[in-house]
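Re: [ENG-882] Designed sequences occasionally contain unexpected residues at chain ends

Forwarding the minimal case from QA. Structure tokens:
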């Protein structure tokens, strides 16, 4: 952000919520966000603010804004993944085994991996449409809630994008921590070879 944009963002942060920010708090925001594009940061901050249980009441934290900006838009939301798996007409878990296999192959890799980890048979048996009451909600609502929590854990555990790259057959084939750090892989010597 240029100086003018930063001052606008700082003013927005300071005046949109009570209490205002002190210099140390503003420093934390600056350290995380100052080098990013103003329009992207503003859009992310507004979106994060609306994601809280009481939209607009809580000031977005710097790391929430950064996390929102780094979210891969190609990774489906839970609602999208649910529809891809359970849609009565075209869901990948609906139909004969041949139809299911064909539909599963067309899914985004992260959804396909979720279904594989959860088990297709288990997912098909979930009582997602059960309307009987249990603890103030329907059994189906509880099952969908637990499924959404499993989806979120899956995305956290896999990083979303990494599993997509690893399982898609294109791009990365394995994780190489040395390459990520920019360190060349050491030469491996065979038995009896001297360095």
């Amino acid at each position: 952000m240029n100086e003018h944009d930063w001052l606008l963002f700082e003013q927005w942060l300071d005046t949109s919520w009570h209490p205002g920010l002190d210099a140390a708090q503003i420093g934390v925001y600056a350290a995380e966000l100052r080098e990013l594009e103003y329009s992207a940061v503003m859009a992310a901050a507004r979106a994060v603010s609306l994601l809280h249980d009481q939209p607009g009441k809580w000031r977005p934290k710097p790391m929430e804004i950064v996390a929102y900006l780094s979210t891969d838009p190609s990774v489906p939301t839970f609602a999208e993944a649910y529809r891809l798996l359970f849609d009565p007409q075209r869901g990948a878990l609906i139909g004969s085994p041949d139809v299911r296999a064909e539909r599963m192959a067309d899914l985004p890799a992260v959804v396909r991996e979720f279904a594989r980890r959860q088990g297709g048979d288990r997912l098909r048996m979930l009582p997602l449409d059960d309307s009987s009451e249990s603890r103030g909600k329907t059994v189906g609502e509880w099952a969908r809630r637990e499924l959404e929590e499993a989806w979120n854990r899956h995305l956290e555990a896999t990083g979303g994008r990494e599993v997509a790259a690893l399982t898609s057959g294109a791009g990365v084939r394995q994780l190489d921590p040395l390459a990520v750090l920019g360190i060349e892989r050491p030469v491996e010597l065979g038995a009896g070879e001297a360095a």
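QA comment: On inspection the terminal residues look reasonable. Residues 160-175 have pLDDT under 50 and may be disordered. Proposing we downgrade this to a documentation issue.
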